[in-house]
Amino acid sequence: MRFRSIGFRLAAWYFLVFACGVAAFSIVAWFAMRASLYHAVDEALEDRVRGVQSFMERQISSLSIPEIRDEFREHSVLGPGGDLFQVADENGQWLYRSVPLETNNVPVALPGALSTPRFETLRVQGHVLRFYSQRIMVNGRQYTVQVAALMNEAFEALGWFRILLALAAPLLLIAASAGGYWISRRALVPVDEISHAAQRISIENLTDRLQVPQTGDQLQRLSETLNAMLSRLEASVRRMTQFTADASHELRAPVALIRTTAEVAVLKRDRQAHEYLEALDDILEESERTSQVVDSLMLLARADSGKESLERVSVDACTIVRSAAEPGERLARTREVDFSVDLPSSPIPIQADPEALRRALLILMDNAAKYTTRGGSIKVGLTRRDGLAVVSVSDTGIGIGSQDQAHIFDRFWRADKARSREHGGAGLGLSIAKWIVDMHAGTISVQSEPGGGSVFEIRVPADKNLAPTC
Ligand code: ADP
């Protein structure tokens, strides 16, 4: 038996509560029994006093005192406990005393002292006697009648009852506690099974699930909750594994390219200076691309671990859009794509990390430039709508199929890998943009169709307090 187990603690509580219950029940039962015994005896005593009174009322005028005494003596032996009574007149002179009371000279309360009927319990010669004393009026004269009953049997019964309680209560307690322990152990067996099953699940078999008992109780809910947690864990582990695989793949290609370019440059015998320069140029370009991927990976890793935080301040959305549009326009122009910005005349204050939001917008503008063919156009707009600052980046580029739209914010996801790679994209830009927008309590969405261009929208809550100029 493990003393810290839930089963033991439940049984201990059960024992404690049951012990209090049994103790309370025993005390109440004992007092109730005692009260009922006294009640029965007292009622009989009152009856007997009434009998004495009616006897005296009937006989006292016709009989002399010695005759009355004889009558009392004669009648007293007939009833149960009848030999235990005595009657005194108003002067305290005994009219009649039954032998046991006279022998022991059991006192009777004087009529003057006895204002109300009185019950009392006295111990006489080792016997417990219940006395009832009452003043009665017969033919205009006052008498004090005192009747008594032997309580020995009642006390014996009470004693037996006490022994019974004292024996039965601990036995009941032991049986109930053992039963409580057994029931709690039985009730907790499924919990043990669940924990054993949960222990068997490790990173290697994360697809395993716990059996769900169809009991509709807490255990079913516990198993379902653990299974839901396992599903989430499995999804994150799968994402992490995928992320690591994609990241290594993404880094292996440029490193291999750098190495090959360097090897070719070194091994080639008759090399000219411009060939060296070309090789170095290629190496430099590939290194830059690689370090960009590494930067993005680092940022996403920090974001996942919660270490990357944003410093949000009150700022005008126009300022951020304008500062992103400058390099965005340069990118578009190098690709011979037209670029225009449409800003509102009044400011749209927002709570934002300007640098981070600028980065997200630049990702959208860079993509728009990358995936728009020469002669196309890019439009950047900013409006206030339903309490939100809405930035849109639309292009007339290649567009995205509806199937692909569901994945574009996933890490390393590219609709057209060859084409994207040719532009230096690793499929991380939109994941970073989405993380930045999420950190601003905003949303990012796309509307697009293949060949029909794309419209990306970033929406962040507008701030009512600030009103800088645009
Ligand atoms: P990448 O660095 O490859 O551009 P992103 O995460 O920024 O990675 O984008 C993911 C994919 O979404 C891209 O590879 C591309 O297929 C698609 N995409 C993003 N923006 C556009 C756009 N404006 N037009 C067409 N396709 C786009």
What do these coordinates show?
- With 470 residues, the chain is α+β, with helices and mostly antiparallel strands.
- 55% of the residues lie in helices and 17% in strands.
- It is built from eleven helices and twelve strands.
- It has helices spanning 6-59, 65-76, 99-103, 152-200, 218-267, 273-305, 317-334, 354-370, 402-405, 417-422, 429-439; strands at 85-89, 94-97, 118-124, 127-138, 141-150, 313-316, 338-342, 349-352, 377-385, 388-395, 443-448, 454-461.
- The strands form three sheets. A five-stranded antiparallel beta sheet has the order 2-1-5-4-3.
- Strand 1 and strand 2 (94-97) form a beta hairpin.
- Helix 7 (317-334) runs parallel beside helix 8 (354-370).
- The longest helix has 54 residues, at 6-59.
- The mean pLDDT is 86.
- Adenosine-5'-diphosphate binds next to helix 8 and helix 11.
Topology:
Layout: H1 6-59, H2 65-76, E1 85-89, E2 94-97, H3 99-103, E3 118-124, E4 127-138, E5 141-150, H4 152-200, H5 218-267, H6 273-305, E6 313-316, H7 317-334, E7 338-342, E8 349-352, H8 354-370, E9 377-385, E10 388-395, H9 402-405, H10 417-422, H11 429-439, E11 443-448, E12 454-461
Parallel strand pairs: 7-9
Antiparallel strand pairs: 1-2, 1-5, 3-4, 4-5, 6-8, 9-10, 10-12, 11-12
The structure holds adenosine-5'-diphosphate.
